[in-house]
Design brief:
alpha+beta; 370 residues; elongated; 13% strand; 11 helices
Length: 370
Protein backbone atom coordinates (compact mmCIF):
# COMPACT_ATOMS: atom_id res chain seq x y z
CA UNK A 1 0.00 0.00 0.00
CA UNK A 2 2.82 2.42 0.93
CA UNK A 3 4.70 1.77 -2.30
CA UNK A 4 1.50 2.24 -4.30
CA UNK A 5 0.77 5.64 -2.71
CA UNK A 6 4.37 6.82 -3.17
CA UNK A 7 4.48 5.84 -6.84
CA UNK A 8 1.01 7.31 -7.43
CA UNK A 9 1.49 10.70 -5.76
CA UNK A 10 5.25 11.40 -5.63
CA UNK A 11 6.83 12.23 -8.98
CA UNK A 12 10.51 11.22 -9.22
CA UNK A 13 10.09 9.45 -5.87
CA UNK A 14 13.56 7.87 -6.12
CA UNK A 15 15.32 11.27 -5.97
CA UNK A 16 15.04 11.52 -2.20
CA UNK A 17 17.80 14.15 -1.89
CA UNK A 18 15.82 16.58 -4.04
CA UNK A 19 14.11 19.22 -1.87
CA UNK A 20 10.97 19.29 -4.03
CA UNK A 21 10.66 15.49 -3.89
CA UNK A 22 11.02 15.62 -0.09
CA UNK A 23 8.23 18.18 -0.03
CA UNK A 24 5.95 15.82 -1.97
CA UNK A 25 6.75 13.00 0.47
CA UNK A 26 5.82 15.37 3.29
CA UNK A 27 2.55 16.33 1.63
CA UNK A 28 1.64 12.66 1.13
CA UNK A 29 2.38 11.86 4.76
CA UNK A 30 0.49 14.93 6.04
CA UNK A 31 -2.66 14.53 3.95
CA UNK A 32 -2.86 10.81 4.75
CA UNK A 33 -2.46 11.62 8.44
CA UNK A 34 -5.10 14.35 8.43
CA UNK A 35 -7.72 12.14 6.77
CA UNK A 36 -7.05 9.12 9.00
CA UNK A 37 -6.85 11.07 12.26
CA UNK A 38 -10.03 13.10 11.73
CA UNK A 39 -11.91 9.89 10.91
CA UNK A 40 -10.53 8.21 14.05
CA UNK A 41 -11.37 11.26 16.19
CA UNK A 42 -15.01 11.19 15.14
CA UNK A 43 -15.34 7.45 15.75
CA UNK A 44 -13.54 7.43 19.10
CA UNK A 45 -15.29 10.50 20.46
CA UNK A 46 -18.70 8.97 19.73
CA UNK A 47 -17.62 5.65 21.27
CA UNK A 48 -16.14 7.39 24.33
CA UNK A 49 -19.26 9.48 24.82
CA UNK A 50 -21.57 6.47 24.53
CA UNK A 51 -19.46 4.32 26.88
CA UNK A 52 -18.41 7.13 29.32
CA UNK A 53 -14.75 6.11 28.88
CA UNK A 54 -12.20 8.79 29.76
CA UNK A 55 -9.45 6.71 28.14
CA UNK A 56 -11.31 6.55 24.81
CA UNK A 57 -12.26 10.25 24.84
CA UNK A 58 -8.67 11.21 25.70
CA UNK A 59 -7.48 8.96 22.91
CA UNK A 60 -9.93 10.69 20.53
CA UNK A 61 -8.48 14.12 21.31
CA UNK A 62 -5.03 12.64 20.93
CA UNK A 63 -6.03 11.82 17.33
CA UNK A 64 -7.34 15.36 16.88
CA UNK A 65 -3.98 16.74 18.03
CA UNK A 66 -2.34 14.38 15.55
CA UNK A 67 -4.32 16.08 12.78
CA UNK A 68 -2.92 19.42 13.95
CA UNK A 69 0.56 17.88 13.91
CA UNK A 70 0.01 16.79 10.31
CA UNK A 71 -0.91 20.35 9.34
CA UNK A 72 2.25 21.61 11.06
CA UNK A 73 4.24 18.95 9.21
CA UNK A 74 2.78 20.10 5.90
CA UNK A 75 3.74 23.71 6.63
CA UNK A 76 7.20 22.58 7.79
CA UNK A 77 7.95 20.71 4.58
CA UNK A 78 6.77 23.69 2.52
CA UNK A 79 9.12 25.98 4.45
CA UNK A 80 12.05 23.53 4.32
CA UNK A 81 11.70 23.29 0.53
CA UNK A 82 12.35 27.01 0.05
CA UNK A 83 15.65 27.66 -1.79
CA UNK A 84 18.60 29.50 -0.28
CA UNK A 85 18.32 33.27 -0.06
CA UNK A 86 20.34 36.26 1.13
CA UNK A 87 19.28 35.80 4.76
CA UNK A 88 19.60 31.99 4.72
CA UNK A 89 22.55 31.09 2.45
CA UNK A 90 22.50 27.45 3.58
CA UNK A 91 18.82 26.92 2.80
CA UNK A 92 15.88 26.20 5.09
CA UNK A 93 16.38 22.46 5.69
CA UNK A 94 16.58 22.81 9.47
CA UNK A 95 12.91 23.82 9.49
CA UNK A 96 12.28 20.06 9.44
CA UNK A 97 14.00 19.80 12.82
CA UNK A 98 11.95 22.70 14.20
CA UNK A 99 8.80 20.97 12.96
CA UNK A 100 9.84 17.79 14.79
CA UNK A 101 10.29 19.87 17.93
CA UNK A 102 6.79 21.35 17.65
CA UNK A 103 5.28 17.89 17.13
CA UNK A 104 7.16 16.54 20.16
CA UNK A 105 5.77 19.36 22.33
CA UNK A 106 2.25 18.53 21.16
CA UNK A 107 2.89 14.88 22.09
CA UNK A 108 4.09 15.95 25.55
CA UNK A 109 1.09 18.25 26.02
CA UNK A 110 -1.31 15.43 25.16
CA UNK A 111 0.55 13.08 27.50
CA UNK A 112 0.41 15.44 30.49
CA UNK A 113 -3.26 16.28 29.87
CA UNK A 114 -4.12 12.57 29.68
CA UNK A 115 -2.16 12.00 32.89
CA UNK A 116 -4.13 14.73 34.68
CA UNK A 117 -7.52 13.45 33.52
CA UNK A 118 -6.62 9.87 34.37
CA UNK A 119 -5.64 10.81 37.93
CA UNK A 120 -8.95 12.63 38.38
CA UNK A 121 -10.86 9.56 37.15
CA UNK A 122 -8.82 7.35 39.47
CA UNK A 123 -10.43 9.05 42.49
CA UNK A 124 -13.76 9.79 40.85
CA UNK A 125 -14.39 6.83 38.53
CA UNK A 126 -17.27 6.81 36.09
CA UNK A 127 -19.05 3.58 35.21
CA UNK A 128 -18.19 2.39 31.70
CA UNK A 129 -20.80 0.99 29.33
CA UNK A 130 -19.53 -2.02 27.45
CA UNK A 131 -20.68 -2.55 23.85
CA UNK A 132 -19.30 -4.79 21.14
CA UNK A 133 -19.57 -1.90 18.70
CA UNK A 134 -17.10 0.04 20.84
CA UNK A 135 -14.73 -2.92 20.91
CA UNK A 136 -14.83 -3.31 17.13
CA UNK A 137 -14.24 0.41 16.56
CA UNK A 138 -11.20 0.39 18.86
CA UNK A 139 -9.77 -2.70 17.18
CA UNK A 140 -10.20 -0.99 13.80
CA UNK A 141 -8.49 2.11 15.20
CA UNK A 142 -5.52 0.03 16.35
CA UNK A 143 -5.21 -1.42 12.86
CA UNK A 144 -5.30 2.02 11.19
CA UNK A 145 -2.74 3.51 13.59
CA UNK A 146 -0.45 0.52 13.25
CA UNK A 147 -0.51 0.97 9.47
CA UNK A 148 0.15 4.71 9.84
CA UNK A 149 3.16 4.01 12.07
CA UNK A 150 4.65 1.61 9.52
CA UNK A 151 3.72 3.98 6.67
CA UNK A 152 5.49 7.00 8.18
CA UNK A 153 8.48 5.01 9.36
CA UNK A 154 8.99 3.66 5.85
CA UNK A 155 8.71 7.15 4.34
CA UNK A 156 10.92 8.65 7.06
CA UNK A 157 13.60 6.02 6.56
CA UNK A 158 13.44 6.42 2.80
CA UNK A 159 14.12 10.19 2.88
CA UNK A 160 15.90 10.35 6.27
CA UNK A 161 13.22 12.60 7.79
CA UNK A 162 13.14 13.19 11.56
CA UNK A 163 9.63 14.65 11.16
CA UNK A 164 8.16 11.47 9.69
CA UNK A 165 10.00 9.29 12.18
CA UNK A 166 8.50 11.44 14.97
CA UNK A 167 5.07 11.03 13.39
CA UNK A 168 5.62 7.27 13.22
CA UNK A 169 6.55 7.26 16.91
CA UNK A 170 3.37 9.21 17.71
CA UNK A 171 1.25 6.69 15.78
CA UNK A 172 2.89 3.86 17.69
CA UNK A 173 1.98 5.66 20.92
CA UNK A 174 -1.61 5.81 19.68
CA UNK A 175 -1.64 2.05 19.16
CA UNK A 176 -0.61 1.56 22.79
CA UNK A 177 -3.08 4.14 24.13
CA UNK A 178 -6.00 2.67 22.14
CA UNK A 179 -5.05 -0.82 23.27
CA UNK A 180 -5.08 0.42 26.87
CA UNK A 181 -8.52 1.97 26.35
CA UNK A 182 -9.73 -1.34 24.93
CA UNK A 183 -8.39 -3.24 27.96
CA UNK A 184 -10.12 -0.75 30.26
CA UNK A 185 -13.41 -1.24 28.40
CA UNK A 186 -13.22 -5.04 28.45
CA UNK A 187 -12.29 -5.02 32.15
CA UNK A 188 -15.78 -3.71 32.98
CA UNK A 189 -17.06 -7.24 32.31
CA UNK A 190 -14.99 -8.59 35.21
CA UNK A 191 -14.40 -5.84 37.79
CA UNK A 192 -15.64 -2.55 39.18
CA UNK A 193 -12.12 -1.29 39.84
CA UNK A 194 -11.03 1.88 37.92
CA UNK A 195 -8.96 -0.07 35.39
CA UNK A 196 -9.77 2.56 32.76
CA UNK A 197 -8.08 5.29 34.81
CA UNK A 198 -5.05 3.10 35.60
CA UNK A 199 -4.58 2.29 31.93
CA UNK A 200 -4.90 6.00 31.14
CA UNK A 201 -2.06 6.76 33.58
CA UNK A 202 0.18 4.09 32.07
CA UNK A 203 -0.55 5.29 28.54
CA UNK A 204 0.15 8.92 29.46
CA UNK A 205 3.56 7.98 30.91
CA UNK A 206 4.35 6.03 27.74
CA UNK A 207 3.38 9.02 25.58
CA UNK A 208 5.47 11.43 27.69
CA UNK A 209 8.49 9.14 27.44
CA UNK A 210 8.15 8.99 23.65
CA UNK A 211 7.76 12.76 23.39
CA UNK A 212 10.87 13.33 25.49
CA UNK A 213 12.86 11.01 23.21
CA UNK A 214 11.83 13.00 20.14
CA UNK A 215 12.72 16.29 21.86
CA UNK A 216 16.17 15.00 22.76
CA UNK A 217 16.85 13.66 19.26
CA UNK A 218 15.70 16.88 17.59
CA UNK A 219 17.60 19.18 19.97
CA UNK A 220 20.73 17.11 19.32
CA UNK A 221 20.30 17.81 15.59
CA UNK A 222 19.86 21.55 16.19
CA UNK A 223 22.82 21.84 18.57
CA UNK A 224 25.01 19.66 16.39
CA UNK A 225 25.44 15.88 16.52
CA UNK A 226 28.57 13.98 15.55
CA UNK A 227 28.56 12.93 11.92
CA UNK A 228 27.19 9.50 11.09
CA UNK A 229 30.14 7.06 11.42
CA UNK A 230 29.06 5.31 8.21
CA UNK A 231 29.13 8.64 6.36
CA UNK A 232 32.56 9.52 7.80
CA UNK A 233 33.91 6.12 6.71
CA UNK A 234 32.44 6.56 3.22
CA UNK A 235 34.09 9.97 2.74
CA UNK A 236 37.38 8.67 4.12
CA UNK A 237 37.28 5.60 1.85
CA UNK A 238 36.50 7.70 -1.23
CA UNK A 239 39.53 9.90 -0.57
CA UNK A 240 41.92 7.11 0.37
CA UNK A 241 41.10 5.33 -2.89
CA UNK A 242 43.16 8.03 -4.63
CA UNK A 243 46.76 6.88 -4.97
CA UNK A 244 48.32 10.27 -4.22
CA UNK A 245 46.36 10.84 -0.97
CA UNK A 246 48.21 9.18 1.92
CA UNK A 247 46.09 10.31 4.86
CA UNK A 248 42.86 12.11 5.87
CA UNK A 249 42.15 13.98 9.10
CA UNK A 250 40.12 16.82 10.67
CA UNK A 251 36.92 15.75 8.87
CA UNK A 252 34.04 18.01 9.91
CA UNK A 253 30.43 17.66 8.68
CA UNK A 254 27.92 20.51 9.05
CA UNK A 255 24.25 19.48 8.86
CA UNK A 256 21.92 22.23 7.60
CA UNK A 257 18.98 19.88 7.27
CA UNK A 258 18.33 16.68 5.32
CA UNK A 259 19.92 16.84 1.88
CA UNK A 260 21.91 19.98 2.74
CA UNK A 261 25.31 19.16 4.24
CA UNK A 262 28.70 20.82 4.03
CA UNK A 263 31.97 19.16 5.00
CA UNK A 264 35.68 19.86 5.15
CA UNK A 265 38.81 17.84 5.79
CA UNK A 266 42.59 17.79 5.40
CA UNK A 267 44.17 15.41 2.91
CA UNK A 268 47.86 14.52 3.24
CA UNK A 269 49.93 14.29 0.07
CA UNK A 270 53.65 13.97 -0.60
CA UNK A 271 55.47 17.29 -0.46
CA UNK A 272 57.20 16.34 -3.72
CA UNK A 273 53.98 16.15 -5.75
CA UNK A 274 53.22 18.71 -8.46
CA UNK A 275 50.88 21.30 -6.93
CA UNK A 276 48.84 21.67 -10.15
CA UNK A 277 48.24 17.91 -10.40
CA UNK A 278 47.24 17.76 -6.72
CA UNK A 279 44.88 20.70 -7.18
CA UNK A 280 43.13 18.89 -10.04
CA UNK A 281 42.93 15.71 -7.96
CA UNK A 282 41.36 17.52 -5.00
CA UNK A 283 38.83 19.25 -7.27
CA UNK A 284 37.87 15.84 -8.69
CA UNK A 285 37.47 14.43 -5.17
CA UNK A 286 35.17 17.28 -4.16
CA UNK A 287 33.01 16.73 -7.26
CA UNK A 288 32.84 12.95 -6.68
CA UNK A 289 31.70 13.40 -3.09
CA UNK A 290 29.01 15.88 -4.14
CA UNK A 291 27.78 13.66 -6.99
CA UNK A 292 27.62 10.51 -4.85
CA UNK A 293 26.74 11.84 -1.38
CA UNK A 294 25.24 15.27 -2.09
CA UNK A 295 27.76 16.93 0.25
CA UNK A 296 29.46 20.22 -0.59
CA UNK A 297 33.05 19.33 0.26
CA UNK A 298 36.09 21.52 0.89
CA UNK A 299 39.45 19.74 1.08
CA UNK A 300 42.66 21.30 2.36
CA UNK A 301 45.94 19.66 1.34
CA UNK A 302 48.79 19.05 3.79
CA UNK A 303 52.23 18.36 2.29
CA UNK A 304 54.03 15.50 4.05
CA UNK A 305 57.71 14.58 3.82
CA UNK A 306 57.49 10.85 3.08
CA UNK A 307 61.07 10.15 1.90
CA UNK A 308 62.97 11.42 4.93
CA UNK A 309 64.01 8.37 6.99
CA UNK A 310 64.57 10.45 10.13
CA UNK A 311 61.11 12.03 9.92
CA UNK A 312 59.45 8.65 9.24
CA UNK A 313 61.22 7.01 12.18
CA UNK A 314 60.30 9.82 14.59
CA UNK A 315 56.72 9.89 13.32
CA UNK A 316 56.35 6.13 13.89
CA UNK A 317 57.88 6.38 17.34
CA UNK A 318 55.63 9.26 18.34
CA UNK A 319 52.56 7.42 17.03
CA UNK A 320 53.44 4.43 19.24
CA UNK A 321 53.91 6.82 22.17
CA UNK A 322 50.50 8.46 21.95
CA UNK A 323 48.76 5.11 21.45
CA UNK A 324 50.42 3.86 24.64
CA UNK A 325 48.42 6.57 26.44
CA UNK A 326 45.15 5.66 24.71
CA UNK A 327 44.78 3.43 21.66
CA UNK A 328 42.16 5.77 20.17
CA UNK A 329 44.62 8.65 19.93
CA UNK A 330 46.41 9.47 16.68
CA UNK A 331 48.74 12.12 15.26
CA UNK A 332 48.88 14.07 12.00
CA UNK A 333 50.70 17.01 10.37
CA UNK A 334 53.99 15.66 11.72
CA UNK A 335 57.13 17.60 10.82
CA UNK A 336 60.49 18.44 12.40
CA UNK A 337 62.69 21.50 12.61
CA UNK A 338 66.36 20.91 13.32
CA UNK A 339 68.63 23.25 15.32
CA UNK A 340 72.22 23.02 16.47
CA UNK A 341 71.39 21.12 19.64
CA UNK A 342 67.72 20.14 19.46
CA UNK A 343 65.24 18.59 17.06
CA UNK A 344 61.73 20.02 17.44
CA UNK A 345 58.84 17.73 16.56
CA UNK A 346 55.64 19.53 15.57
CA UNK A 347 52.35 17.64 15.19
CA UNK A 348 48.67 17.56 16.16
CA UNK A 349 47.13 14.90 18.40
CA UNK A 350 43.54 13.70 18.03
CA UNK A 351 42.17 13.10 21.56
CA UNK A 352 38.82 11.38 22.36
CA UNK A 353 36.28 13.60 24.14
CA UNK A 354 35.95 11.17 27.05
CA UNK A 355 39.69 10.89 27.78
CA UNK A 356 40.18 11.75 31.47
CA UNK A 357 43.44 13.68 30.91
CA UNK A 358 44.07 17.38 30.41
CA UNK A 359 46.23 18.68 27.55
CA UNK A 360 49.08 19.40 29.98
CA UNK A 361 48.91 15.84 31.37
CA UNK A 362 49.04 14.40 27.83
CA UNK A 363 52.10 16.54 27.05
CA UNK A 364 53.87 15.35 30.20
CA UNK A 365 53.10 11.71 29.38
CA UNK A 366 54.47 12.19 25.86
CA UNK A 367 57.71 13.60 27.19
CA UNK A 368 58.04 10.79 29.72
CA UNK A 369 57.25 8.01 27.21
CA UNK A 370 59.51 9.39 24.55
Amino acid sequence: MTDFLVKRFVKDYEKTDDIKVREKYGMLSSITGIVCNILLFVIKYLVGFLTSSIAIISDAFNNLSDSASCIITMIGYKAAAKPSDKDHPFGHGRVEYLTSLVISFIILLVGFELLRNSFLKLFDPEELKFTWGAVLSLVASIGVKLWMSVFNRKLGTEINSSVMLATSEDSRNDVVSTLAALIGLISTLFTKLPVDAVMGILVSLFIIKGGYGIVKETVDHLIGKPADPALVKKINDMLMEKEKIIGVHDLIVHDYGPGNMLASCHAEVSSKENIVIIHELIDACERDIFDELGIIMTIHTDPVDVDNEQVNALRQRMNVTVKSIDDRMSIHDFRITSGECDINMIFDVVVPFDLALTNDEIKKKNRFCF
